[in-house]
């Protein structure tokens, strides 16, 4: 461990014939210099992560109105924001959409990502080139991907509907403009966005599994599917946990994609906790209500943070 | 063994064909972005599968409308990278080497920060930014965007710096170099790959940021390309050619950077995880 190397070298240094009179003072000064390396990062993270977390809780008990920005006054109003938000039917809807969006996205991204990872674990010509080209969508900002898909999914002039028309199935589907379809469409686009990430991490996990295990299974006469289920999947479990938890973290808070595709509509059909926080705070300028929804979002993330840390700990063993 | 027989080789090329098909499906949206960009004035019509003749008027319009926002993105992202590296490189070294009390807690906290939803940060930050006069300022947006890269960079560089042999650092100290000198003259040059990797990811995070751009700016003074394109479709729904051209342009700097720095990324990532 890094600590031990430093620890071993400290006494060696101290035992040198020091010309300085006060070793305690030198040690203190040394510590101060060392903390000087770390302190800016700690301060930055306290300001940009710690402070917002605390401030958000305080704000959820304050009354913000557009007037606040002129007067600077945001009086405390007890639990009013909380009860207002919870009584609003939109909150329940947004919570439900968030869960459906997150679960659907994760399931799709993971299954397709795993299938591709297994596929690319085979040896075939051009494997490496194709595998790295699949990462290209990563270069496009998510909001831009959303806009490109908005064009593709357009009901009358989008290429998806004209393609389906040619095949004679569906066609003229209102992907983004009907409340019934919009959430599904947003999930499908997010699955597309998440596949490369899932594929890369799972591919890495697959490479770590010792080849002998598969050979042994083959010698025992296990079918490919049986080998996959009884050897590959169990060995892959730690990586699977990490992929799913990281995927959850990034999906549950998505804002750009939904704003670019549907702006939360139609008829709030794609409103999630993330977009609702934005709407409350930056469109209605009711930061108190926005803070309430934001806190709920943090709470949900925190539950999964616990999962993540436990997964990390068991992996570290 | 059996891989040299003709059937096996044919099967392997069969996988290549399947791989190409998968790639075509996955990359179709990017192709469509380029295709639409090259067929302007087709906004309200269906787009041809292949551009009949290349028309770059969408690009020239995109550059005249959005070129400034591209420069804004570039300036903000470079600033964010500078802030990110200046803060996280020393911290990574300190956390990797000094054995300070509380190091573990700090590393743990760094992991936790990656779980805080951005919109929650923006929510609280906006009000402080108003008080501090950082709304609509380049510096304010650079700081906020740096927060996207800092935790990632600390974790990445720390895992690299842990692997620097202790003898190298001790040798520098025996030569009389203090911690700062050792860091600048020995540690930073040795960590070049992980610095480039961190900087690259910090750039990508900042370049694709939309949320801080949307929430921390109330005027058009500081408008990165992501916000520019988003507002573009609001105003020009009929003109998909230029919207898509702007989208293509938004991917170009990141692509150039990745091609140029490819070997550093691979080296940085493997150096960080394998050793």
Automatic annotation (TrEMBL), chain A:
Which SUPFAM superfamilies does its entry note? MalF N-terminal region-like, MetI-like
Q: What InterPro entries does the entry give?
A: MetI-like, MetI-like_sf
Q: Which stretches does the entry tag as region Disordered?
A: 1-23
- Main localisation, per the record? membrane
Limits of the ABC transmembrane type-1 domain: 95-308
Q: Which residues cross the membrane?
A: 35-54, 94-120, 132-152, 181-203, 239-262, 282-309
Keyword tRNA-binding among record annotations: no
* Bilayer disposition of the protein: Multi-pass membrane protein
Q: Which family does it belong to?
A: Belongs to the binding-protein-dependent transport system permease family.
What name is this protein filed under?
A: Sugar ABC transporter permease
Instruction: Tell me what organism the protein belongs to.
Output: Streptomyces anthocyanicus
From TrEMBL, chain B:
* Example of a GO cellular component annotation carried by this entry: plasma membrane
- What high-level taxonomic lineage is stated for the organism? Bacteria, Bacillati, Actinomycetota, Actinomycetes, Kitasatosporales
User: Which organism's genome codes for this protein?
Assistant: Streptomyces lividans 1326
InterPro entries for this protein: BP-dep_ABC_trans_perm, MetI-like, MetI-like_sf
**What membrane topology does the annotation report for this chain?**
Multi-pass membrane protein
Subcellular location per the Swiss-Prot or TrEMBL entry: Cell membrane
CDD domains (UniProt xref): TM_PBP2
Question: What family does this belong to?
Answer: Belongs to the binding-protein-dependent transport system permease family.
The entry's protein name is: Putative alpha-xyloside ABC transporter, ATP-binding component
């Amino acid at each position: 461990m890094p600590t031990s190397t430093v620890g071993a070298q400290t006494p060696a240094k101290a035992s040198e014939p020091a010309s300085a009179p006060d070793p305690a003072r030198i040690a203190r000064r040394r510590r101060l210099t060392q903390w000087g390396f770390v302190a800016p990062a700690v301060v930055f993270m306290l300001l940009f992560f710690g402070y917002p977390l605390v401030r958000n809780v305080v704000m959820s008990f304050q009354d913000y109105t557009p007037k606040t920005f002129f007067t600077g006054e945001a009086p405390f109003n007890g639990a009013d924001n909380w009860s207002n938000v919870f009584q609003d039917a939109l909150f329940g809807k947004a919570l439900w959409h968030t869960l459906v969006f997150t679960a659907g996205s994760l399931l799709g991204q993971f299954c397709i990502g795993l299938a591709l990872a297994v596929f690319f674990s085979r040896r075939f010509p051009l494997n490496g080139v194709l595998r790295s080209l699949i990462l290209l969508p990563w270069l496009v900002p998510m909001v831009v991907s959303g806009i490109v898909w908005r064009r593709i999914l357009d009901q009358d002039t989008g290429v998806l509907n004209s393609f389906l028309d040619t095949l004679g199935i569906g066609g003229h589907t209102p992907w983004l403009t009907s409340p019934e379809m919009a959430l599904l469409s947003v999930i499908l686009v997010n699955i597309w966005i998440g596949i490369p990430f899932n594929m890369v991490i799972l591919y890495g996990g697959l490479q770590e599994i010792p080849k002998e295990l598969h050979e042994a299974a083959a010698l025992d006469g296990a079918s490919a599917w049986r080998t996959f289920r009884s050897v590959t999947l169990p060995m892959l479990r730690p990586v699977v946990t990490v992929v799913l938890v990281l995927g959850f973290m990034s999906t549950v808070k998505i804002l750009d994609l939904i704003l670019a595709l549907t702006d939360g509509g139609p008829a709030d059909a794609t409103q999630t906790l993330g977009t609702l926080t934005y709407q409350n705070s930056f469109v209605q300028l009711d930061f108190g209500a926005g803070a309430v929804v934001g806190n709920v979002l943090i709470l949900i993330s925190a539950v999964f943070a616990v999962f993540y840390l436990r997964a990390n700990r068991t992996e570290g063993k | 063994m059996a891989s040299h027989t003709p059937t096996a080789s044919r099967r392997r090329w069969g996988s290549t064909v399947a791989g190409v098909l998968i790639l075509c499906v996955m990359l179709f949206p990017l192709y469509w972005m380029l295709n639409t960009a090259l067929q302007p004035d087709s906004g309200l019509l269906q787009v041809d599968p292949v551009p009949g003749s290349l028309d770059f008027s969408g690009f020239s319009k995109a550059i005249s409308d959005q070129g400034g926002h591209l420069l804004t993105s570039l300036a903000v992202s470079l600033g964010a990278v500078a802030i990110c590296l200046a803060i996280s490189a020393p911290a990574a070294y300190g956390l990797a080497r000094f054995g300070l009390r509380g190091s573990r807690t700090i590393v743990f906290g760094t992991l936790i920060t990656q779980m805080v939803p951005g919109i929650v940060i923006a929510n609280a930050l906006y009000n402080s930014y108003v008080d501090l006069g950082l709304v609509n300022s380049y510096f304010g947006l650079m700081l906020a965007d740096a927060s996207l890269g800092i935790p990632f960079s600390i974790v990445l560089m720390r895992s690299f710096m842990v692997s620097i042999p202790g003898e190298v650092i001790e040798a520098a100290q025996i030569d009389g170099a203090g911690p700062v000198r050792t860091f600048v003259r020995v540690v930073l040059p040795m960590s070049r790959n992980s610095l480039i990797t961190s900087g690259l990811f910090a750039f990508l995070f900042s370049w694709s940021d939309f949320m801080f751009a949307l929430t921390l700016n109330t005027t058009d003074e500081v408008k990165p390309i992501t916000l520019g394109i988003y507002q573009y479709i609001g105003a020009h729904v009929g003109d998909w050619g230029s919207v898509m051209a702007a989208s293509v342009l938004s991917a170009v700097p990141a692509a150039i950077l990745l091609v140029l720095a490819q070997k550093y990324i691979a080296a940085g990532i493997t150096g960080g995880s394998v050793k």
